[in-house]
Amino acid sequence: MATITSPGMASGLPIKEMVAQLVALERAPLTGLQTQVTKAQSKLSIYGTISSLVTTLGDAGAKLAEANAFKAVKATSSLPDVVGVTVKAGTPPTGFSLEVQRLATAQNTSSAVVPAGSGMGAGTLTISLGNWGSGSFVANAEEEPVLITVEEGKDTLKDIAQQINDSDAGVTATVLKDANGERLLLRSKSTGAEMGFQVEATDADAGDGKDLGRLAYMGAGSPSTLTQAGLNAQATINGVAIESASNTVADTIDGLTFELKQLTTTPVNVTVANDKDAMKKTVQGFVDAYNAVMDLLATTTKYDPETKVAGSLQGDSTATGLRNAIRGMMRSSTPGGEFTQLLDIGIEIKSDGKMSINSTKLDAALDKPAELGKLFGATSDDPTQRGFGLKLDAFADGLVESGGTLSNRTESLNASIKRTNKEMDKVVDRAARAETRYLAYYNAMDANVARLNSLNAYITQQITMWNKNTG
């Protein structure tokens, strides 16, 4: 009688392959479970994007509700190269005529000539800030004089200039060198009559030919020469004379800053007007934010009958409910003003769900910024009476905050993924235990077959010997 043999297997059966197939059956549920996880993760990612877009929509609502959202103004100068102008939001529309008779200047002095690179005599320089307007120097009591100490034969003009620049004396120092020698040039750091300066010199060894007095400026007749007096700017606004220590004139008219650049030969007209373009940009930002979130919801919840492909959130009640809630929010009404709804100012929702702007109606509404401010930013203890922008901001916060629709849906998806992963772990564990059990069973069977085969061989041998002996 022939026996079935196979290397490594007494039974001749492909036990490993048989066990692998049985284990594969045990692991079969993993495919469906993994599909569930993949779908849930896809939804989770989409809801993350939706949450971000809803937050952006809420921020756009908050921007519409800001106090200056519809108080944007722009200022223009008829000669911007001569007089520049900037304006703060909320400044009332107005106009001015401005003329510049003098620009603000900083005081400049030049010292007497000294030999190039030579050391100066010992002593001190005292630099004080103040006003020369009366013909004599009047020190600024709020500014402490600065003392510069010079060492004999060691400190050159370059060293002295460096000390002055490091001292925060309110002036800057530069050394001018030419064929005649060197001069110390000093300049006030700030323009204006009150930021003039004087330089007093005290020589330790007067008459040694290295006198520090050559650097002094004490007014007319000083060794140093006044090359430019420190002066205030002078201008007229609507014929009214003004002065400014700086060529940047702020706070003369509330909300406006003028930049005086040149003397005028003809009046410069400055105009402040409502900045409709800036206000439109704010409105457009809201419209874009709405369309972005609604586009995503429409795309992810639709079913394409031609391709027979459904969006990732098709049939998702949360997404459908969210879409309806946001559209309903856009119909919110704000009583108390000329404009009560978005439609009143030209913000419309078309049949395709897209929001668009009727430019004609919006332009007309922008001529009434105060009424627009009420529509979007009206405050009230009653939430239903608040401006649309405030309500939209609160609505968006409610969706994304803990306990909100989007937050709850995200938590639900995360919980579902966690549960499914646990089920997958159980399937893997069961399959591992089944593999161990199957291998034990078939190995035991294989061992029994081996024993039977051995017995069969022994009996065959005995029969063969008996036949020989009896033959």
TrEMBL record:
UniProt keyword terms in alphabetical order: Bacterial flagellum, Cell projection, Cilium, Coiled coil, Flagellum, Secreted
The keyword 4Fe-4S belongs to this UniProt entry's keyword annotation: no
Domain Flagellar hook-associated protein 2 C-terminal: 232-454
GO biological process: bacterial-type flagellum-dependent cell motility; cell adhesion
GO cellular component, one term: extracellular region
Domain Flagellar hook-associated protein 2 N-terminal: 11-107
Cellular location(s): Secreted; Bacterial flagellum
A Pfam family this chain is assigned to: Flagellin_IN
Residues spanning the signal sequence: none
InterPro entries with a match to the protein in the record: Flagellin_hook_IN_motif, FliD, FliD_C, FliD_N
Subunit structure: Homopentamer.
Protein family according to the UniProt entry: Belongs to the FliD family.
PANTHER family per UniProt: FLAGELLAR CAP/ASSEMBLY PROTEIN FLID, FLAGELLAR HOOK-ASSOCIATED PROTEIN 2
Function comment: Required for morphogenesis and for the elongation of the flagellar filament by facilitating polymerization of the flagellin monomers at the tip of growing filament. Forms a capping structure, which prevents flagellin subunits (transported through the central channel of the flagellum) from leaking out without polymerization at the distal end.
Protein's name according to its UniProt entry: Flagellar hook-associated protein 2
Naturally occurring in which organism (per UniProt): Hydrogenophaga intermedia
